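dumping this here before i forget
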Amino acid sequence: MINERELLEKQPTKDNELKEFLVNYVGNKHNNPDDNVTVEMIVETMASDFPEFLMVVAEENWIRGYQQALNDVDYGIKLENED
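structure:
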């Protein structure tokens, strides 16, 4: 399993228009001429320049995690009651 640090340090490929735009935008914003742009740099730039977008993603992630936790509790209760 890949840990969070590995994902943040990963340099994304420019294999579609959006990724190419983001990598170039972040590279230019950080004055990084060698295109050494990491996912972490993109997240930091998005947080700075487009926080509304990241808030929606974070809220959705939180809701899904909370729902999964409730499902896990229900499943655990079901297993306990079967004994």
